[in-house]
Design brief:
The complex is a heterodimer of chains A (about 400) and B (about 250). Chain A is α+β, with helices and mostly antiparallel strands and about 400 residues long. Chain A has 11 helices and 9 strands. Classes of the chains: A alpha+beta (about 400), B alpha/beta (about 250). The complex binds flavin-adenine dinucleotide. The site of flavin-adenine dinucleotide has 22 residues of chain A, from strand 1, strand 3 and helix 11.
Chain lengths: ~400, ~250
């Protein structure tokens, strides 16, 4: 295997044999299938669709779910998958997060047996693709304000409204859409090709370019009765999906940071200025040490988070703390690496610029950096500063 | 047809090897270990033969430290049916003693085909497989790059790499084959494979008695390379380069 991650505190020793096997397998796949071409995909603004099926064959999609063709492994395994994928690119990890945590998880947790039988095996195999529509053009951090509605009719539902910033939108065979009904916010499965349902890609992105981001439009879109996720009873179910995805993001960010740190370290040892490798200057060492220290802290935070989740003790505010810390940490590493690389850092021959651009999305989606701060703030003070009382 | 693949756990190809304090062994601190790449190719081919219905069982055999269970689980995740770990009790075992204990274990396993990598990438001795064949009195073919099929009673038609060309040989079972690059492209272990591997049998036992025929005296890193010299950049550097090649080194 060609890649060894920085592991200053021997965190690997805290992983089980299975976890290491998965980590190494995904790492090998990322090294062979993502790292070589992802800069080209980013430049072209395309998601490499063939990777979906390969990820499915490896069992990376919905890896912690039981049954229906899913691998049924632990939460730390899911975290490690995200970490390795995001070392390649945040866009590829986003695909996997959406498919596993935002589409397969709600179908698994809130779907009917028929919905599970129909969708989970295909989604696990990567032969079908899913997306998750919660955010709207006018409702981001406050999704409860959504205006998309699903009104009951004699034979089903009629949906009207729009969803914005939806990862995998135009690619998706099935969309998990959250809409207001007379009984509050519920989840629906909307299949590609349903009359009244259209999708458009969002152009002009300079972040997450190797991932598809779209708008979903519902214009008198008629859905059958069984389109509803029967066990979804409110916005809290959508937030449960986000919690699962954020957990993965807290791990994924470490991968992006590690990729940047490696690049910075190599450059620091090989770039000669004033007759010395720049790594011999104190300020460069300071930057490298700060990066590695923050990565190490993030690793331990994520691992503890994983063990809490596995033992059923996880609180969502703990996920908020880890998502917030680790993504900001990764973004800082990307920026510092860009700086250490000098002019080289601005080209796509190096990974730091792409990671930096990607992480600008990651720090916003799944709850912005500040929203997570307010969630933790509310937890410790008991006072709500979010403004949604 | 029953296949046994001999696997060695070795430091990763990119690991920076440092001698341990004893001056004889590798310091494992911070080193990642992997299945030796040629052994992994052999394993992949064996699993493919099983998937194609040619082989009925694939067992992996390893002489290694107690934590080599990770590499054996990986082999079972890739598709081996079961595994045997001979737990190493020495800090050094020479190729002759290695072949002796593997041969003893193989006698019990009674395979039709023994698959090894042509060498393990740590010690590079490239002798163990041949010695196993000699000890067991099995047929032997090295540097196998293809298996064309089974002919008659359990004879394998294999393609071997030879200088500048390839030859096809008919090797009667029981036999020992060594894998060369090109025989198969190792796959990545899938999560389902890893889950299945947890339930596959992994037997751990002590290796048979065997004397070393030679001893390891010291492990030394090669002397550091002298720093290079930059003579100039682009076309401007050419006159100086020519001068050095002609006058200083006398090669022009
Ligand atoms: C690439 C990408 C992919 C995405 N994929 C999906 C997807 O698949 N599905 C989906 O549903 N959504 C998706 N999103 C949407 C994402 O979740 C939202 O962008 C995010 O929730 C923030 O919403 P917003 O963009 O409307 O920002 P806003 O909510 O308008 O926030 C703007 C700013 O105001 C701040 N702010 C907001 N409220 C408060 C407050 N109460 N107190 C203090 N500050 C506040 C925020 O922190 C932020 O800095 C994606 C976004 C991106 C960029």
């Amino acid at each position: 295997m060609a890649y060894e991650s920085p592991d200053f505190y021997g965190v690997d020793e805290l992983l089980t044999e299975d976890e290491l096997l998965v980590r190494d397998s995904v790492r090998g796949w990322v090294e062979e299938r993502i790292v070589p071409d992802v800069a080209e995909h980013f430049k072209a603004g395309v998601f490499p669709l063939e990777l979906a099926r390969e990820a499915g064959e490896l069992g990376l999609l919905g890896a912690s779910l039981e049954g229906y063709g899913c691998a049924g492994m632990g939460d730390v395994v899911y975290g490690l998958i995200c970490q390795e994928l995001e070392r390649g690119d945040s866009g590829i990890r986003s695909f996997c997060s959406v498919q596993g945590s935002l589409v397969m998880y709600p179908i698994h947790a809130f779907g009917s047996e028929e919905q599970k039988q129909k969708w989970l095996p295909q989604l696990a195999a990567g032969t079908a693709i899913g997306c998750f529509g919660l955010t709207e053009p006018d409702f981001g951090s406050d999704p409860g304000g959504m205006i998309t509605t699903a009104k009951p009719t004699d034979d089903g539902w009629v949906m009207n409204g729009a969803k914005m910033w939806i990862t995998n939108g135009t690619l998706a065979d099935v969309a998990v859409v959250w809409a207001k009904t007379p009984d509050g916010i519920r989840g629906f499965l909307v299949e590609k090709g349903t009359p009244g349902y259209t999708t458009n890609d969002i152009d002009g992105k300079w972040s997450l370019r190797a991932s598809v981001t779209s708008e979903l439009v519902f214009d008198d879109c008629h859905l059958p009765k069984d389109a509803i996720l029967p066990k979804s009873v409110g916005l809290k179910n959508a937030l449960m999906c986000l919690n699962s995805a954020r957990f993965g993001i807290a791990w994924g960010a470490i991968g992006a940071a590690q990729a940047c740190y490696d690049e910075a370290l190599t450059h620091a040892k090989t770039r000669i200025i004033y007759g010395k490798p720049i790594g011999r200057f104190q300020m460069i060492q300071h930057k490298l040490v700060e990066m590695l220290t923050e990565i190490t802290k993030a690793q331990l935070l994520a691992l503890r988070l994983g063990r809490l989740k596995e033992s059923g003790k996880l609180h969502h505010t703990q996920v908020s703390m880890a998502k917030r810390n680790n993504v900001a940490m990764a973004l800082e590493c990307a920026r510092t690496t860009r700086d250490i690389l000098g002019a080289s850092g601005i080209t796509d021959e190096y990974v730091c610029g792409r990671h930096m651009a990607n992480l600008e999305s990651v720090i916003t989606y799944e709850g912005t950096h500040d929203i997570h701060m307010l969630i933790v703030g509310m937890e410790i003070t008991g006072l709500n500063a979010l403004g949604n009382e | 047809m029953k296949i046994v693949v001999c696997l060695k756990r070795v430091p990763d190809t990119t690991a920076k090897i440092k001698p341990a304090a004893d001056g004889r062994t590798v310091d494992p601190q911070g080193v990642e270990f992997i299945i030796s790449p040629y052994d992994e190719i052999a394993l992949e081919k064996a699993v493919q033969l099983k998937e194609a219905g040619t082989a009925t069982q694939v067992t992996v055999l390893c002489l290694g430290p107690a934590n080599a269970t990770k590499e054996l689980r990986k082999a079972m995740a890739i598709g081996a049916d079961d595994a045997v770990l001979l737990t190493e009790d020495r800090d050094f075992r020479d190729p002759a003693a290695t072949a002796e204990v593997l041969a003893a274990a193989l006698t019990e396993l009674a395979p039709d085909v023994v698959f090894c990598g042509w060498k393990a990438i740590d010690n590079d001795s490239a002798t163990v497989a041949g010695m196993i064949a000699a000890r067991l009195d099995f047929a032997y073919a090295s540097f196998v790059v293809g298996i064309e099929g089974v002919e008659g009673q359990n004879a394998l038609r294999v393609r071997r790499e030879v200088e500048g060309t390839e030859e096809q040989v008919l090797v009667p079972a029981p036999c020992v084959l060594t894998a060369q690059r090109g025989l198969a492209e190792p796959r990545f272990a899938s999560l389902k494979g890893i889950m299945k591997a947890k339930r596959k049998p992994l037997e751990t036992k002590a290796p048979a008695d065997a004397e070393n025929a030679s001893d390891l005296v010291a492990l030394q890193p090669p002397p550091p390379r002298a720093a290079g010299r930059i003579l100039g950049e682009g076309a401007a550097g050419v006159p100086e380069l020519v001068r050095v090649l002609r006058d200083d080194l006398g090669v022009l």
